[in-house]
Amino acid sequence: MTNDGRRPDASDEAGERLRILSSAHLATGPHAELSELEFGLIIAHNAFSRWIVRCMAAAGAADLAVTDVLVLHHVHHRKRGKKLADICFTLNYEDTHVINYSLKKLAGMGLVRGEKSGKEVLYATTGEGAALIDRFRAVRGRCLLASVEGELADGASLSDVARRLRMLSGLYDQAARAASSL
């Protein structure tokens, strides 16, 4: 069932498949399905953001915003120091001030530390930050992974969706550059 109570394959009186979208005015012409996908991205983004903040709160850090959670996880990734520019690049954040603010917040909470390396600062998780991530992982396993079944449990399908999302991000990044030059 969809959010509006209809079957996903529901049709209107004319026999056309009903689309679930927020901007019908964008769903006409070539690639009309893109508007349907964009609405899916919107609601998935908001649900994911809400989920990681609440998961982190359940793990013991209720004061972290979405960006803070993403930065903490990425800084911990592979347990290697990360430069500000690399964090921004990997998470696809254009504004380094947002990530820098998050790093300062996380450092103030004792979850990350910055260490000077030449002209750069490399950020890494502290023992407390690593322990918080372990608790997040436990909550994730209990609340999210336990619910994954059916088509969503197929690792190859999930990898394909992830690959397609990365392709779409490139498409939107290129479109943003084009729009900036108008």
UniProtKB/TrEMBL annotation:
UniProt entry tagged with the keyword Cell inner membrane: no
Domain spans labelled HTH marR-type: 68-129
Keyword Secreted: no
GO terms for MF: DNA binding
Pfam families xrefs: HTH_27
Keywords from the named record: DNA-binding
InterPro entries per UniProt: HTH_MarR-typ, Trans_reg_MarR_HTH, WH-like_DNA-bd_sf, WH_DNA-bd_sf
Name recorded for this polypeptide: Winged helix DNA-binding protein
Protein source organism: Pigmentiphaga daeguensis
Lineage, highest ranks first: Bacteria, Pseudomonadati, Pseudomonadota, Betaproteobacteria, Burkholderiales
